[in-house]
Hints:
Keywords: Signal. By secondary structure, this protein is α+β, with helices and mostly antiparallel strands. It is built from one helix and seven strands, in the order αβββββββ. The strands form two sheets. The protein has a four-stranded antiparallel β-sheet with strand order 2-1-3-6, with no helix packed on it. The chain folds into two domains: 31 residues; 87 residues, Gamma-B Crystallin, domain 1 (Sandwich).
Amino acid sequence: MGGSMRKFSKRMGLFAGAAAAAFVSTLITPTSASAAPDAWQCTPGAFCVYTGDNGTGSVCAWTGDDPDWTSGSSACSWARGTRVQSAFNNGLSGSPVAAYTATSFNGTRAFCLVKGRRINLSGVGTYLRSHTWKC
Length: 135
């Protein structure tokens, strides 16, 4: 019985060692500090624009008209030097949103986006500067 007990003890020791090693490896495995946000995240009632395709990247959001995205209380921090790649009208009313390439709703109207609609802007995106909740 002494021999079989030693084999059992040796197996249990090996099992315990393997389990401990597996546990320690889960403690030291690197993970990202924070998960990437889900695509198309946009507060209900808002119009959102994104630096990446398919509602990814940095986002700016508004619940009302904004004649100048680069100044004022609702400034979009990246709008001056980064193109919009995608947009989402997550408004609560049935109002569409029109976005423009210049301030004060001037320049080219890039799109008119109906409620609930998402869009990817073609190519390398578009520099946008203002929007209004009417087309």
